[in-house]
Specification:
Blueprint (H helix, E strand, L loop, with lengths): L1 E9 L13 H11 L3 E4 L8 H8 L5 E9 L5 E5 L3 H13 L8 H4 L3 E3 L5 E4 L12 H10 L3 E4 L9 H5 L10 E4 L17 E4 L15 E4 L4 H10 L5
Parallel strand pairs: 1-2, 2-3, 8-9
Antiparallel strand pairs: 1-10, 3-4, 4-7, 5-6
Helix pairs in contact: 1-2
Length: 240
């Protein structure tokens, strides 16, 4: 068994609020420099840069998961992780069909850049990724499982785009057993009765290269593999 340092909440230049410096090659290089072993790309409502990200991660011996930060109709953010591109891409196609029928306006949200693993520009995503989908928070856990993935609400301690800020409480009927908190989460928040029994991971939610912080947590695995990672997420707690 060995401890592997991880973060599953990173944005690339494809996210409407992501820096143009957050290219797949730059992100993976910075994560390697920071000391990570396992990482995931979770752009807003898209998996469009995940293939480049996973390819770029191989250079640094990083285990990379394709993912997404889904915005539900309630404007709650949910981290969605997948074992491979074969599962992630169909989910991305599904989400794209459930986005608002509007084009992105780069003047307000910035360009949404599609890159290859060598940071060559492939084009721009035209859909407005900054909007909320029409997918409800009570649908997400089962929906992502149907696509072979795992989902959990993002940054529940924040005062916007979180379950607690937008719904006012944690409802077990949503179907999640795991939640993400930020590194500055007040310890007393985790003592709320409605959060009893939940497990927590920390996500840096980096939109800029200098927001890729030093590792805050690790997972104890028998091997560095996707299967081991998903088993840990489903069955284990963060070791800090």
């Amino acid at each position: 068994m060995k401890d592997y340092r991880f973060d599953f909440h990173l944005h690339s230049c494809l996210s409407p609020c992501g820096s143009e410096d957050m290219t797949p090659a730059n992100i993976t290089a910075m994560c390697a420099l920071a000391g990570y072993d396992i990482i995931a790309l979770t752009d807003h409502n898209t998996v469009g840069n995940c293939a480049a990200f996973c390819e770029a991660a191989k250079q640094w011996d990083l285990l990379a998961l394709p993912g997404m930060e889904l915005t539900c109709v309630e404007e709650v953010h949910v981290v969605c992780l997948f074992p491979d591109l074969e599962h992630a891409i169909p989910f991305g196609d599904y989400v794209r069909r459930h986005l608002p029928p509007m084009d992105n306006d780069p003047r307000f949200f910035g360009p949404q850049l599609l890159m290859d693993s060598r940071d060559q520009l492939l084009g721009e995503e035209t859909a407005m990724l900054a909007g909320a989908t029409d997918i409800g928070i009570y649908e997400v856990a089962a929906l992502v499982r149907d696509y072979g993935g795992l989902a959990y609400p993002a940054h529940i301690d924040r005062d916007s785009f979180s379950v607690l800020s937008n719904l006012g409480l944690w409802d077990s009927e949503m179907g999640f057993s795991l939640a993400e908190i930020s590194s500055r989460c007040p310890p007393e928040l985790l003592q709320r009765p409605d959060l009893a029994g939940l497990r927590f991971v920390t996500g840096c939610d980096a939109h800029y290269l200098d927001q890729i912080s030093d590792p805050k947590q690790s997972m104890n695995l028998s091997e560095k593999s996707i299967n081991a990672v998903f088993h840990w997420l489903i069955n284990s707690q963060s070791s800090g």
